[in-house]
Amino acid sequence: MNNTTTALVLKDVTLEYPDGQNNTVRALDNVSLSAVRGTVTGLAGPSGSGKSSLLAVAATLIPPTSGTVEVNGSDVGGLDDTGRARLRREEIGIVFQQPNLLPSLTAVEQLVAVAHLRGESTGPAAERAAELLGIVGLGGQASQRPHQLSGGQRQRVNIARALMGNPSLLLVDEPTAALDHERSASIMKLLREVTEEFKVATILVTHDVEFLPLADVVVRMRDGVLTHPAPVDTP
Ligand SMILES: Nc1ncnc2c1ncn2[C@@H]1O[C@H](COP(=O)(O)OP(=O)(O)OP(=O)(O)O)[C@@H](O)[C@H]1O
């Protein structure tokens, strides 16, 4: 691990998808963006503007058509599949809209399963998992399975799970889409707190402009083009 303070650098990233008719759809158009550890970057923009595509490229799940992606100092373009998978495991936490927890596992087991994938042994992993669940406010729910948790609690498990690998970059896609206002506000507050506590660079895609002021930087997308940092109170 390089431990740079800038966890993500996208330089002139363009992403084109085939449209199925010998043409392409340009989802990202010359996007340049960097994200610093300990800060939240809010990413807003209308449906279809390219926000999920940007997260997928940053997550190293989709290679860009052109441009470069650096995660914690490593040039992703120079890595093979194994190298990218390792980088993802070691540097990137992902929180999707739906928590996608495994129905048969307890909250603590959801987190320990991630550690097992990284080759860690159960004892220290269970200790770290319990600590993380405490931090996200679920100290008393460690033995509960997803169906015994509320939507907000499930999203908290999801966030704790994403932090389990000690990432430098946390990519969060519409984390409150399925939650009521009060739960949304507390999830956003939690994301702010863990960003500072774990010194992750958080990129937060949200439709909910009400929560954008909690971001340190707000960027907006339109038609694949990034509108560069705007004041957080810009409507
Ligand atoms: N797998 C794909 N194949 C072809 N086109 C795609 C694919 N995924 C996305 N697109 C297109 O790329 C553009 C950007 O889509 P993207 O999902 O990144 O936008 P978004 O801002 O995340 O939208 P939303 O807010 O609705 O999730 C859109 O025109 C979309 O139709």
Automatic annotation (TrEMBL):
SUPFAM superfamilies: P-loop containing nucleoside triphosphate hydrolases. It comes from the Bacteria. GO terms for molecular function: ATP binding. Pfam families: ABC_tran. Gene3D superfamilies: P-loop containing nucleotide triphosphate hydrolases. InterPro entries: AAA+_ATPase (IPR003593), ABC_transporter-like_ATP-bd (IPR003439), ABC_transporter-like_CS (IPR017871), ABC_transpr_LolD-like (IPR015854), MacB-like_ATP-bd (IPR017911), P-loop_NTPase (IPR027417). Residues 8-234 form the ABC transporter domain. The keyword rRNA processing does not apply. Keywords: ATP-binding, Nucleotide-binding, Transport. PANTHER family: ABC TRANSPORTER RELATED, IMPORT ATP-BINDING PROTEIN. This is ABC transporter ATP-binding protein. It comes from Arthrobacter koreensis.
